[in-house]
Amino acid sequence: MVAKSFYELSAADKSGEPFSFEQLKGKTVLIVNVASKCGFTPQYKDLEDLYKKYHDEGLEIIGFPCNQFAHQEPGSQEEIVQFCSLNYGVTFPIMQKIDVNGSNASEVYQFLKDKKSGLLGFKGIKWNFEKFLVDKEGNVVERYASIKNPSAIAPRIEELLKK
After folding, report:
1. What is the predicted pLDDT for the residue at 123?
2. What whole-number percentage of the chain has pLDDT above 70?
3. CB atoms near residue 111 (< 10 Å)
4. Which phi-psi region, left, alpha or beta, contains residue 27 (left: φ > 0; alpha: ψ -120 to 50)?
5. Catalytic positions
6. CB atoms < 10 A from the CB of 117, how many?
């Protein structure tokens, strides 16, 4: 079944339990494919800063570990969560490791890529730390390349939180 709405999606949380996107209704959501051994890994700090600053206003950030880009996320789920916590103080949800491209791409990423293509209409995820911004109604409103620092997204997040 292909999800018709963002809120029909679900994923496995860090413990492998179902995480229904239904609970994200009314929130602004930033979804990021993450990796521990990437040049962009320091973005975890900026993501956590955004989460701390805006979570009480309705921002949710969800990290999806992915090992599809130069094997930069080789760890087990426990190792990934521990790395994020110890090195960057991450408190936002880190889901189970997934694929974002190819025939085994998670339903979440199939949905996101279908709703918002990248540069020149490219649908695939090009690297770790690509970001999708979803508004309070479940619309995928922005897609940002890996190079876009999370702190640079703050004005757009503030705008969506006020709507």
Report:
1. 83
2. 95
3. 21
4. beta
5. 38
6. 12
Q: Are 67 and 97 in contact (CB under 8 A)?
A: yes
Written as one letter, the residue type at 162 is K
Helix (H) or strand (E) holding 41: none
Q: Which two tokens stand for residue 111?
A: 């949905």
Element (H, E) at 144: strand 140-144
Beta bridge partners of 10: 20
- 3-class secondary-structure state, position 81: helix
Consecutive H or E run containing 159: helix 154-162
Cα distance between residue 33 and residue 38, in whole Å: 11
For tokens 């702190």, the residue is 151
- State whether residue 11 is helix, strand or coil: strand
> Locate tokens 């992915």: which residue?
66
**Measured between alpha carbons, how far apart are the two ends of the chain, in Å?**
31
Strand order in the sheet with 28-34: 59-65, 28-34, 131-134, 140-144
Biggest distance spanned by C-alpha atoms of the chain = 39
pLDDT digits (tens, 9 = 90+) for 20-47: 999 999 999 999 999 999 999 999 999 9
* pLDDT value at 2 more than 70: no
